[in-house]
Amino acid sequence: MRQPSGGPPRRSLTFLAGLAASAPVIAVIGLAAPPASAATTATADVAPPTVTYGDTVTYTMDVSASPGPATGGQVTFTTGNTYLCSPPGGLVNGTASCTASNAPGGVDTIEAAYIGVFGNSSATTTLTVNVTPPAAPSGSTGSASAAGTDPGGEVAAHVGSLYVQGNGPGAVTVATYGANPTPTALPSATGVYGDVAIGRGSSFDSVVIARCDYGAASSLQWYDSATSSWAEFSLQSKDVGCLRAEVTGTTTPTLAQLLGTPIALAAGTAPSAPQGYWLVARDGGIFSFNRSFYGSTGSIGLNQPIVGMAPTHDDGGYWLVARDGGVFSYGDAGFQGSLLNRGIATKKVVAIVGDAATNGYDLIGSDGSVWDFNTPQFGDLPFLGFHVNDIVGAALTPDAQGLYLVGADGRVYSLLGDSKFQGDASSLPLNAPIVGMAVDPATGGYWLVGKDGGVFSYNAPFHGSTGSLTLNQPVIGMASTGDGDGYWFTAGDGGVFAYGDASFRGSTGSIALNQPVVGLSGS
């Protein structure tokens, strides 16, 4: 893909475009036999030779016959799979012409074919059809356009971190909005909206849409004006750099639907990633349920026990953290440092949270200290003047631009950034202390979970709890599904409890563990 450095690489795609109308079949009946010495040669021409899509073009074929002149028969003009026109009377004194305005964008090879009593003949010529980029949509805050006619090339445009590439000839306009441009809310939207439109007559094989610097988003959504609803692009992928959607004639949406289509970033389940989760034990042993195993510290002699884990944004790896701030990286989780590297001596680390935007992480102390490793600085409780020693959990806001902490007494602390206090359980008579929290990616609210599995919801839907059940082991933590419509908790024996749309994938409840489970990560 030819574009500024940092943009998404070219994705080379092919697709069979056979949607154009087929040429009508005309039978030639009762023709007299041609003279024994009949022979034909042909030439083809177009006027004008360069047009803008939608302009009328005159197609002409001249057939020389010996003896002649050639008359009647059938003449047909096509380009690729696109039927253009046929003169109703065939040749008249060796010449036939007709007009059409549907030649597709690009450098078209025009094929003229003659079938008649003077024999069959054909000829070709070329027509250049330029496609005009669509106008920027009303209300957009920025836009860019591009056009091209090279059948083997790309047409690329970008505005900010939104990139669009059409493979083949055509035109495209990409735009951004400051707010949702549609009348339909997208509950899990991160507030980042754009628009993609391809010009009429474009002959793209495919279009690649990429949104880079996507923060905590997990999917690209498009607005279907026919149903007034948002939906995921059916073919999309995610890596550290960009979220990508590929559009062809058979995807959802199709190329024909990209005629001014709003798109949005959403904090939903990662594209094509089925639900699953990991459990981590105090010795760093990892138990994978519908997730890949990337490694563990189960066979390593640790200085301090593991206290938590965090997955990477694409579930391609995870970090483990020990009580002394030692960090262990597996899969595509990049090692960004540890407290030991910084010469910080402590035994009060209680949690780790991963930042999807930076592939970094924050370590959380029981006193509310926050140590950032390639992540934004949100301050911490000592910095803000709070003196506690009971922090048990933490969670980033859906866009990773804010951080919450929660204490065992149910008190929630909103640090700097876009975290917003939405209530807590500090004034309630708790049956058991709070042990963890999770943020709802759809609403931006959060849940708290107690040691008994009781759940407290704040601007987040309540899906159920184990508060009324007798547990074999106390609950130690929770995680939400990618769409916010469910959550899991796990107990110290690795028993897993699934609520809402969270799927139960297995547990270690019936396994004799070397060390108790101390953390759960899922999506």
At a glance:
This protein is mainly beta and 523 residues long.
Write a structural description.
- The protein contains 1 helix and 37 strands.
- With 523 residues, the protein is mainly β.
- It folds into 3 domains: 39-130, Immunoglobulins (Immunoglobulin-like, Sandwich), CATH 2.60.40.10; 142-266; 277-522, Methylamine Dehydrogenase, Chain H (7 Propeller), CATH 2.130.10.
- A 6-stranded antiparallel β-sheet has the order 9-12-13-19-15-16, with no helix packed on it. A 5-stranded mixed β-sheet has the order 2-8-7-4-5, with no helix packed on it.
- The protein starts with 38 loop residues before the first strand and ends with a strand.
- Mean pLDDT is 88; it is low at 1-37.
Features:
523 residues, mainly beta, Immunoglobulin-like, Methylamine Dehydrogenase, Chain H, 3 domains, 6-stranded antiparallel β-sheet, 5-stranded mixed β-sheet, 37 strands, 1% helix, disordered N terminus
Mean pLDDT: 88
How far do the termini sit from each other? 32 Å
| Radius of gyration, taken over Cα atoms and rounded to an integer in Å | 32 Å
The major pleated sheet works out as: 6 strands, antiparallel
How are strands sequenced across the largest beta sheet?
9-12-13-19-15-16
What is the CATH topology classification name of the largest domain? Methylamine Dehydrogenase, Chain H
By CATH, the architecture of the largest domain is named 7 Propeller
Give the fraction of residues assigned to helices: under 10%
Number of domains: 3
CATH class of the largest domain: Mainly Beta
Shape: elongated
Structural class: mainly beta
Query: Which strand-content bin applies to the residues?
Result: 35-45%
Number of strands: 37
CATH superfamily of the largest domain: YVTN repeat-like/Quinoprotein amine dehydrogenase
Number of helices: 1
